[in-house]
Amino acid sequence: MTCTRCPSTIQKDRKTKTNAIKTSKYNPFTFLPLNLFEQFQRIANAYFLFLLVLQVIPQISSLSWFTTVVPLVLVLTVTAAKDATDDIVSKRVFFLCGALRGEKWMNVQVGDIIKLENNQFVTADLMLLSSSEPLNLVYIETAELDGETNLKVRQALTVTGDLGEDVEKLADFNGEVRCEPPNNRLDRFMGTLTYAGQKYPLDNEKVLLRGCTLRNTQWCFGLVLFGGPETKLMQNCGKTTFKRTSIDRLMNVLVLCIFGFLAFMCTVLAIGNCFWELNEGSNFTAFLPRQDGNEATFSAFLAFWSYVIILNTVVPISLYVSVEIIRLGNSFYIDWDGKMYHAANDTPAEARTTTLNEELGQIQYVFSDKTGTLTQNIMTFNKCSVNGKSYGEVTDSCEASNKVDFSFNSLADPRFVFHDHSLVEAVKLENPEVHAFFRLLALCHTVMAEEKREGELFYLAQSPDEGALVTAARNFGFVFRSRTPDSVSIVEMGRQRSYELLAILDFNNVRKRMSVIVRSPEGKLSLYCKGADTIIYERLHRSCSKLMDVTTEHLNEFAGEGLRTLALAYKDLDEEYFNGWKRRHHEVSTSLDGREGKLDELYEEIEKDLLLLGATAVEDKLQDGVPQTIELLSKAHIKIWVLTGDKQETAENIGYSCNLLREEMNEVFVVSGNSPEDVRQELRSEVSPIGKCFPSHPIHFFVLIGSVFPPESTLGNGGVKAMADEAVNGEYGLVINGHSLAYALERGSELAFLRLACLCKAVICCRVTPLQKAQVVELVKKHKQAVTLAIGDGANDVSMIKAAHIGVGISGQEGMQAVLSSDYSFAQFRFLQRLLLVHGRWSYLRMCKFLRYFFYKNFTFTFVHFWYAFFCGFSAQTVYDEWFITLYNLVYTALPVLGMSLFDQDVNDAWSFQHPQLYVPGQLNLYFSKKAFFKCALHSCYSSLVLFFIPYAAVHDTVRDDGKDVADYQSFALLTIAHNCFVISLSPRLQLGFEMSYWTAVNTFFVLGSLAMYFAVTFTMYSDGMFLTLPSAFPFIGTGRNSLNQPNIWLTILLTSILCVLPVVTYRFLFIQLCPTINDKVQVRQAKATPPPPPRRTRIRRTSSRRSGYAFSHAQGYGDLVTSGRFLRRPALPRSSGFSHAGRTTTSFSPMGRSAGYSPTGRPQNAKVSDVEVTSLQMYKTIRDPAL
């Protein structure tokens, strides 16, 4: 991409920022302090730093400093490297600039004038100065701002448009812009331009916002008004925050509890030391002399801090290293998953962060964008009803032989697909009703046609459905070629015909229809009308009653398949009547009072006694597998809310198409208040009837339509109580239109709004701004305290992606902004089910098992020290040697637990999809919680008692085979160490066997390898050679071979292991038999049954009586634009009829979307924008023709 910069003398009254955008957390200067600050927010890290300070005090420390320094440095280094990698990989963006004077985007400043060319991304908020198009028009796509793919028109002031592309004039441009301060209102701009002594008003129609893309315009120049974080797009984007999982937050709480427990144990042992010194200490002064002045209380004080050091393993610093390794491994599983790879655009799934994997197994709310996330932005003409006969089939895939051959029409779109040959035969047989049907589609629209080369047509439609309908007429022999303000040229079955365009009765949200009045080359006057069937039926002639009944049946069938329907009708007009009507129309259009109402009356007058032609059925194509994914996630008790900037009609129809909404709902409430009081009253009145239905199971539908953004954040401070879930009988819906959403999010209404929304299973928010999306997410996070996930594909989704606990970016048609801000990314919405139900659930399950077992082994290790203190005079002597303490977590016991945490699967992926209810325990925090933690502590207490007292009793007053004493300190320490390793490493074959459901060769190697490592290291460190090398570091010379060669030692190890494992075996056996969990049941089924077949993505049908309104992406005003008397146009190419009965000629066609679907921008799907050559399109100034 390139952008051109030239200086300007525009006045700047305030200090402005550059256009640089920061989307990363760190830079080279702030990385070290910020990362260390973030890491020391973990209480355990701060604790070990404090512990290190204690260990340098000789009077306190009984352990060497390296036992703390090595693990702490290792933890900090590994975590910092991981954080740096995440930040570099996921937040890197490059911008290039060049032309008259090349500049990087980040260097663009307020007051600069930049040049943009076709298909370029708008880099800052600009005031449009001039363009290559007539009347200084430009066409922009705003999909990354509001999700709408239909093109929008902007027009420069005439005074600046005269500057053209003359660089010298632009450089000499000297004006003053005064405008509103930076804000997040995408739909409003207020300002003035003072130039040459005159003031000119500026509004949203004169501004190009950052995030837009220039389309069908060769070039334009713009003046930078706002840059960088002051642009409206960035004002709608939330701050990049440090995301932490709920397990991380719980671990912080648990670490505080552990600190309290550690202080309690140290206090008990210090008191014990004080009493021992008072009662027994004097007996040992001969070989343990006291320093002068040292009393029992001071000894107890020193003992307290000594035991803080010795019992430090109760706060496991190695836990964080292990957690990061597990998260990294689970992230690699996502990256390597071939079933989440999208071959069509060569896009694999990517875990862009490694810190949130287990949170994927606890999602309760999914917030999704619509355009580009659920849908493909492609419209296809699938079915139609003409004169009482239904044509077409809705198929996902068909044999090539079943496709209609359009070779008779060399102007046909080669990508258009239709599967009913009878319709083509009716066209060829010149069926008059069929011809009239397609003639209406070719004439009644506001589509613009571009024909750069002979026969290569490119359609630009303001509404995607209009493009699909005109493309259908084109393929069936009625080809729209061009238009002027007063004519429409089409090719009818090979004959070039030009119709005089007399009037366009434009669409609006009330009329829900549009009409055109044309005169045929033979002089026949006709009115063609298309619109919502209910609107058209009210205006039909009585003679159409039978045809209306048949067509209604077809419409119900089309709507039942999720298709968007329109009814078509026409009437012939009398010349004398039309002349009188036209005269009255001119008088009304020039009046000042009540113009709109009088025009509607005139339209009503002429649009009556119509004759029905038939109906069309267009499919807004969903991405593959969307209905099945939504259904599966719903079964997993995951609530799905759709937050879109699109219109209500569009969102509702997509909701029905993907089975998010259903016809079986009991009632749909509508909230349309125009004030905060009205909205609060309506919310209360509509919660009341639902509340009477209490309780059963939650169900739900919800639609929000709102484009008015609240003036300030509606969210309060933290510390609120979570709103409890409620249940109802039946299914209910809610619609909030327009500005009502803003009032619903205000402090006085937000709880009533949230309560009503949470009684719903599916929520659809329409016409929301990016910041409103984030507000809805924050509202749920704050008051429901549930884990949330946001998924989207455009820049307008960045704010909610940042606000949610988990952000997922779709690599789609709307750029990479969402992906760059996300935590995970992939190409299709359907991969979300695998991310959550497979990878998320496995990650959460593995992490919870790891934490339970890690705390168990560390508590067991530490409690042995506590019991030993009662037998060593509370002298802070360790029961283990220092090398065992250092290597216990890093070498001896790390691998068995890591093996379980990296490879365990309770059930495989196929059974996870077969039983989505397996996901529910994660939402309820059943696998790891405070309760589970305290159970681990009690289990550890029991195991430590066995590990200490069984060996103590076994070696008490015991001698070796040669009569020598066994019960020396070093032999007892070795025996305790051996028991500990066997219980933690070998007994996992039994104890972990109940936890680990998926044994692999790696798991087995880790368990047996850890034992082999223990013996290898033990015999090495206790050897004569190590003692001779460093006597002070390896004092346990010969202890290993002297103790482990005694049979009673091995019998003691066996007895201890059995006593430790027996309670676990008993508990698991009784629990599975008496109250098995769903995991237990599915594991039994998996062991006995063959794996279920992979789910097939079949089309989900529904029965519905609901039909869509007219062209719901359409907007009012294009009729006036088309018929503008100031329309300018470039010379047209000479054209042939375009038909050949001798066969189809080879022609290069502009892509029109996949499967003959209509893409409003005309871009081929999954192709780079830069590969498409698009020229400017002629458009028109929005004024009324005074001659009409």
Tags for this entry?
1188 residues; alpha+beta; 10-stranded mixed β-sheet; 9-stranded antiparallel β-sheet; 39 helices; 15% strand; disordered C terminus; EC 7.6.2.1; Phospholipid-transporting ATPase
Structure write-up:
The strands form 6 sheets. The chain has a 10-stranded mixed beta sheet, sandwiched between helices. Strands 15-14-24-23-22-21-20-19-18 form a 9-stranded antiparallel beta sheet, sandwiched between helices. Helix content is 40%, strand content 15%. A hairpin with a 7-residue loop joins strand 20 and strand 21. Helix 1 (31-39) packs across helix 3, helix 28 (894-903) runs antiparallel to helix 34 (1001-1021) and helix 31 (930-955) crosses helix 32. The chain is built from 39 helices and 32 strands. The longest helix has 39 residues, at 831-869. With 1188 residues, it is an alpha+beta fold. Mean pLDDT is 76; it is low at 1-14, 89-98, 694-718 and 1125-1188. It is a multi-pass membrane protein.
